[in-house]
Design a protein that fits this description.
This protein is mainly α and about 120 residues long. It has helices at about 1-10, 20-45, 50-70, 85-95. It contains four helices and no strands.
């Protein structure tokens, strides 16, 4: 289970469906805010800086795998640097649009439950 959680949060390989992206991003953000408040309250603001690198790593991994599910290269994340338009594009692309059906160059469709039910193995 710990291995699955580590892959879910820290791996940049493979694809990720929309629902997994939303739940993981939401729970990661909640955990980040809770830890931020706790660290700032106990040790002061500078102590909370330790949370930012792992948070950005996890969010980058989630966004990369979500873009791959859409069939796009992770370099598209550079659009986030464009004010207003970039974050709006990312919201639509990562959070609202369905992934590429079937296999793409980044792997199998994460929503595919194992292929054709008539296939004999």
């Amino acid at each position: 289970m710990l291995e699955k959680l580590g892959r879910l949060l820290f791996s940049f390989s493979g694809r990720m469906p929309r629902s997994t992206f939303w739940w993981t991003a939401l729970l990661t953000a909640i955990a980040f805010v809770a830890l931020l408040v706790l660290l700032e309250k106990l040790f002061g603001r500078p102590a909370s800086l330790v949370l930012y690198p792992p948070f950005f790593w996890v969010m980058a991994a989630l966004a990369t795998r979500r873009l791959r599910d859409r069939g796009r290269h992770p370099a598209w994340l550079l659009l986030l640097l464009v004010p207003i338009v970039g974050p709006l594009w990312a919201l639509a692309e990562l959070g609202l649009r369905r992934g590429t059906p079937g296999e793409n160059r980044y792997g199998q469709d994460p929503l595919d439950l194992g292929g054709d039910y008539l296939t004999v193995k």
